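WARN  no MSA supplied for this record, continuing single-sequence
INFO  ligand: dinuclear copper ion
INFO  echoing inputs
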Amino acid sequence: MLMIKNFTSIFWTNTDASTNQLYTYFGIAAGCILFLVIFFTYYFSKKYRAKQPDELPEQKEINHKFELFILILAICITAFFLIMSINTMQQIQDIPENPKPDLVITGHQWWWEAKYPQSGVLTANEIHIPVGKRILLEVNSADVIHSWWVPALGRKIDMIPGLKNYIWLYADKPREYLGACSEFCGIEHARMRIRVVADTEEDFKKWTESQLEPVITQATPLFDKGKALFEQKTCTNCHGINGTPFSENIGPNLTHFGSRKRFLSDMKPVTRENLKEWLTNPQNVKPGVKMPNFIFNPDEIEALTEYIYNLK
Ligand code: CUA
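INFO  complex generated
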């Protein structure tokens, strides 16, 4: 059994034991059926093939009893897995009646908003959770149907506008877990990637504290120029920065943007070059994205990059 567990963990690292067990059974059954189908296809094609080029192969009447046996067997296998699946779903979907979520994720075209109701942290795309703790996740959507799925952390769940859905997330190791939006949600659906960083309890506490710290308000003249441009060019109509009067949440919140490793739903690393390319023409980088091309001149891009990159 241990060997099978080790083997299936190559494909599946979900720490939820019941989901793992169901997946293992599915794997064994599907593997056996695949083997039998390949074996008999080969065996019968050898056994009944024509010996001479123009010979008609031997004709056989259908064996009705055998057909019935196969039909009943298929129904039994399907019923077994149906019951197993319903049982597993009930086991892992033990959501309390008045759920108090640890984390609220809102799907947007095409990024993730992350809110931590208990601490008040609001961020985007780079999602942190503590390791070794069941996290109650609430999901919803700001526009169309998205679907949240980080396979190693739990089951998939649809994000539906106007509806709150809940699942449990659990990470057993401090590392990064990848996922993707799993419901077609428009032109950039394929690039709506998820990155969840599971921190040790101490690191998660530090991260939370750093997120709650006020944003830097002044640094260099270029930074200040960027800050002024950010307001003049109406960036603030979509992007909020905590600790400033701007709290719009149409685009990703940019507080501490510079401390994130990646941006654009995990599409690119946060570097000055990528940020400049993005500001020059967002549509070139991510066609269809909601952010318009503001046709900034190179000096403005320098200043805006200096500002946004240093929001730490
Ligand atoms: Cu969001 Cu697909």
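Residues 2-48+65-92 form one domain.
INFO  checksum written, moving to next record
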